[in-house]
């Protein structure tokens, strides 16, 4: 029970999306029925978000862009103990790194365990969220203030059609951010006359048998697709961006990449079939796969929400990477890219609920903006790009542990992520040591080591 309440009736909360973040939100909202009434809207025909593999690429039968970016052979890049929801361990006989089907089944089991499906409206697209600017009716006015507007949410049922509108006291945006491809701006890119696609649309290695494939980007997607592809392709070339986050260049130099895989620098220009790289090297690939990340996109947020996304990667105005700085009843779950969205929601959602129930007061908008801008400026000064505004992969200051500590301290709550720190650090160290073998590592309380590492 909260210390005091700003309102008499349960607050009505709309949750957008039923992937891991939306399901965590549902789980935690459902645990406080006296305080919250909620509905979860999911555009897809099932729960699971990213983990609902789609053989199709492009548009769904309903004419919406396919959401999931995972490919047929995908194995998780994090082990179970780091990935799992804090109150629902993976089955004890699970492998450390799993095929996506096992993650999907785990998510289904989680929803069943906490009886979440009844609160989720599938095949329901949130078309728009509008801030209500009219005065609230007096009976509902107790918790209202300019910082706590209500929201008109319009949804469309994809099966059977029909739109509905409903007023909510708060909206939790859990719509994910690994769905809308980001492309680099390479001069002449449009002239490329081979096959090109984004990793969002990569599904199988077979179509690339015997081909020379250029993978742009040196992070997780590029690496994982390389591992899937190299037994089929004639040659795989990984183009390293300015941040070779996975030390692939080093692995190549040490001869630890497969025989038909090599690295190169970043493309400077594309002219027809020829790609020229920053070191002057040239290549004629049959296929280019852009493993260049994703953009934040919230097409359903009406202009009245006052949310902008700059450079595809900076959501504004956002406090602690989750709270609208001006309208505190609009919050975003799972946006920092730590890659740990399953447990992260267990830290973010309770904070969101504390803001809603009035037990956590926020600083003034001016102070919030000052803090947010200072963080952004410091990031740029340290060499990060504008698109890294919500990225936590730059230790020691911008690491996932720092973020989790910071928001837990801010809200004065237990940090449920803390028990995962050690395992996370071990897996990251193993990953950086040798991406080819890190999934073979083992963790136990008394013994941490990487097998097969150089
Ligand atoms: P999502 O899973 O993206 O779910 C968002 C949901 O919102 C979707 O179901 C979507 O349909 C719905 N939605 C969006 N817009 C609307 C709308 N307007 N109306 C209604 N519904 C809407 N994480 C790990 O922990 N381990 C891994 O190994 C791992 N591997 C990954 C590999 C790849 C290739 C990718 C792309 C991501 C990977 N991730 C991994 C990150 C993964 O995205 C998260 O695990 C997790 O799925 C994020 O959960 P989410 O709920 O925030 O977003």
Write structural notes for this entry.
- The chain is an alpha/beta fold and 454 residues long.
- Helix content is 23%, strand content 22%.
- It is built from nine helices and 26 strands.
- Strands 3-2-1-7-22 form a five-stranded parallel sheet, covered by helices on one side. Strands 9-16-10-11-12 form a five-stranded parallel sheet.
- The protein is globular.
- Bound molecules: flavin-adenine dinucleotide.
The biggest beta sheet is recorded as: 5 strands, parallel
Count all strands and give the number.
26
Strands ordered across the widest β-sheet: 3-2-1-7-22
Low-confidence sequence ranges: 443-454
Give short descriptive properties of this protein.
9 helices, five-stranded parallel beta sheet, globular, NADP, FAD, Flavin-containing monooxygenase, 454 residues, 22% strand
List the helices and strands and how they pair.
Blueprint: E1 11-16, H1 20-30, E2 36-41, H2 80-83, H3 100-113, E3 120-121, E4 124-131, E5 151-157, E6 163-168, E7 170-173, E8 180-181, E9 195-198, E10 212-216, H4 220-229, E11 235-239, H5 248-253, E12 261-264, E13 267-271, E14 274-277, E15 282-283, E16 287-290, E17 294-295, E18 308-310, E19 314-316, E20 318-319, E21 323-324, E22 330-332, H6 341-357, H7 365-381, E23 393-394, E24 398-399, H8 400-411, H9 421-433, E25 442-444, E26 447-449
Parallel strand pairs: 1-2, 1-7, 2-3, 7-22, 9-16, 10-11, 10-16, 11-12
Antiparallel strand pairs: 4-5, 5-6, 8-17, 13-14, 14-15, 18-19, 20-21, 23-24, 25-26
Bound molecules: flavin-adenine dinucleotide.
Residues 16-22, 41-44, 49-51, 67, 69-70, 76-78, 83, 125-126, 174-176, 178, 221, 300, 334, 339-342 line the site of flavin-adenine dinucleotide.
Pfam family, one: FMO-like
Keywords: FAD, Flavoprotein, Monooxygenase, NADP, Oxidoreductase
Organism: Priapulus caudatus
């Amino acid at each position: 029970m909260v210390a005091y309440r700003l309102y008499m009736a349960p607050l009505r909360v709309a949750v957008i999306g039923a992937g891991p973040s939306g399901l965590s939100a549902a789980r935690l909202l459902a645990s406080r029925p006296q305080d919250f009434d909620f509905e979860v809207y999911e555009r897809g025909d099932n729960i699971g978000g990213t983990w609902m593999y789609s053989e199709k690429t492009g548009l769904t039968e309903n004419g919406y862009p396919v959401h999931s970016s995972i490919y047929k052979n995908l194995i998780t890049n994090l082990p179970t103990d780091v990935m799992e929801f804090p109150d629902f361990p993976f089955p004890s006989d699970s492998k450390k790194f799993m095929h996506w089907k096992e993650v999907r089944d785990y998510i289904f089991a989680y929803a069943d365990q906490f009886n979440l499906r009844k609160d989720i409206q599938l095949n329901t697209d949130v078309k728009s969220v509008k801030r209500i600017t009219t005065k609230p009716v007096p009976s509902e006015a107790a918790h209202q203030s300019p910082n706590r507007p209500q929201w008109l949410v319009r949804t469309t049922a994809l099966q059977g059609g029909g739109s509905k509108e409903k007023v909510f006291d708060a909206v939790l945006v859990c719509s994910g951010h690994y769905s809308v491809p980001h492309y680099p701006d390479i001069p002449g890119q449009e002239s490329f006359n081979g096959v090109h696609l984004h990793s969002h649309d990569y599904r199988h290695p077979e179509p690339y048998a015997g081909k020379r494939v250029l993978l742009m980007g040196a992070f997780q997607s590029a690496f994982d697709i390389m591992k899937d592809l190299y037994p089929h392709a004639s040659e795989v070339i990984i183009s390293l961006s300015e941040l070779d986050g996975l030390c692939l260049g080093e692995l190549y130099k040490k001869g630890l990449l497969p025989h038909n895989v090599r690295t190169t620098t970043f493309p400077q220009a594309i002219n027809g079939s020829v790609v020229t790289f920053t070191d002057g090297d040239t290549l004629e690939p049959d296929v280019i796969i852009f493993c260049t990340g994703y953009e934040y996109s919230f097409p359903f947020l009406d202009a009245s929400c006052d949310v902008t996304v700059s450079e595809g990667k900076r959501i504004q105005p956002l406090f602690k990477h989750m709270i609208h700085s001006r309208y505190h009843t609009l919050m975003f779950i799972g946006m920092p890219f730590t890659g740990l969205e399953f447990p992260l929601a267990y830290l973010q959602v309770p904070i969101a609920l504390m803001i809603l129930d009035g037990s956590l007061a926020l600083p003034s908008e001016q102070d919030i903006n000052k803090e947010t801008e200072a963080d952004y400026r410091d990031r740029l000064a340290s060499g990060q790009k504008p698109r890294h505004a919500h990225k936590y992969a730059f230790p020691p200051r911008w690491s996932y542990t720092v973020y989790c500590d910071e928001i837990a301290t801010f809200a004065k709550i237990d940090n449920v992520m803390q028990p995962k720190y050690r395992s996370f650090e071990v897996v990251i160290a193993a990953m950086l040591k040798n991406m080819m073998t890190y999934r073979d590592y083992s963790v136990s309380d008394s013994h941490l080591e990487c097998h097969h590492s150089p």
